[in-house]
Amino acid sequence: VFDTCQVCLNLMALIWRLRCGKSWLYVYLLLEFQSSVDNFMAVRIMVYIGLLYQYLVDTQEMTAKDKLPPVLPLVIPKKTSRM
């Protein structure tokens, strides 16, 4: 989805746009496969959300008067022996 994202090599993102009244609701499913713990995952999630917002602006899905759509980020850790 985002051609500017260099860290998305292990990333799979699906975006659904649903009509909710007079506006749109974006459901953003983000799957990232990692082999180790990332202590800065929150920062990377913020980057992905920012890239989604930038994509919506660049494709004119949003205008200056629109509110940013809500995004609910979920991180599901892989079970390891350290948990």
Layout of strands and helices, then pairs:
Layout lengths: L10 E10 L2 E10 L8 H18 L25
Antiparallel strand pairs: 1-2
Give a brief outline of the structure.
With 83 residues, the protein is an alpha+beta fold.
What's the helix-strand series? EEH
Assembly type of the chains comes to single chain
Number of DSSP E strands: 2
Mean pLDDT: 74
Shape label: elongated
Lateral arrangement of strands in the main beta sheet: 1-2
Radius of gyration, CA atoms, in whole angstroms: 15 Å
Helix tally? 1
Percentage of residues in strands:
15-25%
The computed structural class is alpha+beta
Q: Any overview of this molecule?
A:
By secondary structure, the chain is of the alpha+beta class. The chain starts with 10 loop residues before the first strand and ends in a 25-residue tail after the last helix. The chain has a two-stranded antiparallel sheet. It is 22% helix and 24% strand. The radius of gyration is 15 Å and the shape is elongated. It is built from one helix and two strands. The chain has one helix at 41-58; strands at 11-20, 23-32. Mean pLDDT is 74; it is low at 1-9.
